[in-house]
Amino acid sequence: MLKILIADDHRIVREGIINSLNEHYPNSKIKEAENAAAALELARGENWNLIILDINMPGRSGLEVLKEIKEFDPPTPVIILSMYPEDQFAVRVLKVGASAYLHKDTSTKELITAINRALHGEHYITPSIAELLTDEVQISSAKQNHKTLSDREYQVFISIASGKSVSGIAEDLSLSVKTISVYRANILQKMNLKNNSEITHYAFKNNLVDIV
User: Fold this and answer.
1) Burial classification of residue 187, based on how many CB atoms lie within 10 Å of its CB (0-12 exposed, 13-18 middle, 19 or more buried)
2) Residue 79: φ, ψ to 5°
3) How would you class 157 by CB atoms within 10 Å of its CB: exposed for 0-12, middle for 13-18, buried for 19 or more?
4) In CATH, what is the architecture of 145-205?
5) Annotated domain spans of the chain
6) Residue 90: exposed, middle, or buried by beta-carbon count in 10 A (0-12, 13-18, 19+)?
7) What is the pLDDT of residues 106-140, one digit of tens each?
8) Contact (CB, 8 A) for 94 and 67
């Protein structure tokens, strides 16, 4: 019997994943977590065959949760689901130890393929992510300022570059406006930038966000 943990703050997303899992793995035992704290508590409390984790949850980010899981339970495969495009977070989560990075609009067929790979100890990497990994190797010798950001700072950086306001980002991440403002100040200092316009320009120049 497979034991699978699903961590996502949106009930409708969890229900959709559970329906797909019940169809393909009818004897599986599935538990849910709606935030980072609950996910870590369940992850520590039982042995899991697979963890499916949203990158953007209230409190601590999915990236932070992934890192902690890989510290106390490295063998358990973790699949990251995200609303963010692959070029924004895929390389980071794979470096931390995720088995796959999938966008939330991925098909059930692709999700099941990724799960089967993960359950066999393999990675599921799309062609576009493979290209990103190749690019990462090629530019690894050239230090880029955004690589100095923490995972949460990088998340805020991408949100600012995508045109979101500080209050909007605070609402998305379930954090205070003051906390987001501190992250923004850290970003500007670490990257030697002056304002949001320069953050956006840097992100476009380095292909970190899509031009809408």
Assistant:
1) buried
2) -105, 130
3) buried
4) Orthogonal Bundle (1.10)
5) 3-137, 145-205
6) buried
7) 999 999 999 999 999 999 998 888 888 876 665 55
8) no
Radius of gyration of the chain (CA): 17
pLDDT band at 143 (very low <50, low <70, confident <90, very high): low
Tokens of 137: 């190797």
**Second-level CATH architecture of 3-137:** 3-Layer(aba) Sandwich (3.40)
